[in-house]
Amino acid sequence: MTQHPPDHTLGVDIGGTRMRAAVVAADGAILDRSASATPAGDPAALLDRLEALIGRHPDMPVGVGIAGLVDPDGTVRYGPNIGIRDLPLATRLSAATGGPVTVANDASVAALAEQRVGAAVGADDVVLLTLGTGVGGGVVAGGSLLLGAGGFAGEIGHVIVHEGGRPCPCGNRGCIEAYASGTAIGLLARERLVDPDVPTTLREVDDPTGADVTAAAAAGDRFAADVIEEVGGWLGVAIASVVNVLDPQVVLLGGGAAASVAPTALPAARRALAARLVGSAWRTPPPLELAALGDDAGVVGAALLAGDRARRVADPAAAAGGRAETDLPRSDRPRSDRSRSDRPGADEDTR
Ligand SMILES: [Zn+2]
What we know:
- It contains ten helices and 13 strands.
- It has helices at residues 43-55, 89-97, 106-117, 177-180, 182-192, 210-218, 222-246, 258-276, 297-314, 316-321, and strands at residues 9-14, 18-24, 30-37, 62-66, 69-70, 76-79, 84-87, 101-105, 126-131, 135-141, 144-145, 250-254, 288-290.
């Protein structure tokens, strides 16, 4: 076991398929990392794995970011991709390891990481959308994570862009997640391929996924690029609503699918945002940029949050005077999974 300085913390990021962990310095630098498959659908195995991981760093504050709805006590109310409900994760891990454990939604902690040490350094008001299997979101307002009354703030993936539109895994219809997730990109392309006259290399792929579409777009396939552009337009519609409410200094696109769609999706999203911003003649839309930390955002953000909490506990007065993070984390957004849709929702102007 390596000895680390007292300001080092352990960050854990639990996604639907991968679990990552890292020892992180106070400046966000990653010193040690590991990754493994998430034991989805098996809460007991998940707890065992986490206890073993935390046990290797016995004196370190621990932060956990997890894909799901997390309440202020660190209980994961609903983590559909990981297959857990009402799991008091912070309490269980603290009891088992004897140290402080802070749990929050994964996209919220990613937003904190980008604001502290990533693409939004210097901005106090930041919105992050994460594009992966689903669409997540996190908000930093006035330098602190915005978690809401119950810890559930920041569910940008479920901003409705088309009332009555495509079904979303959350049970509603028309959420941005149903139009812009990796899952939705594949679905949209498959729907468009029904037209036999459209030339595209995607005809050579059985049931193309979102990753197939972005790869084809990057290789110059016009059809695939048009799909991504449409998705960018939908993103801009959702982002405009968020910006109209929160007025952030910067909006970031992160998550596993962000970098591959960004070249085509971001320009389309910027146009859609500018067209829908209230008072657009008298203001400038906030920059909409690619996030900087990639897959590390979750572990770094979770670790930074744990550090905030440790400082607050050690010195409440200084923490209140400085800008320590909100407390126990919580917030979230369910990323989703497979979305089935009925028909193309392309009847709305999204650009
Ligand atoms: Zn939804």
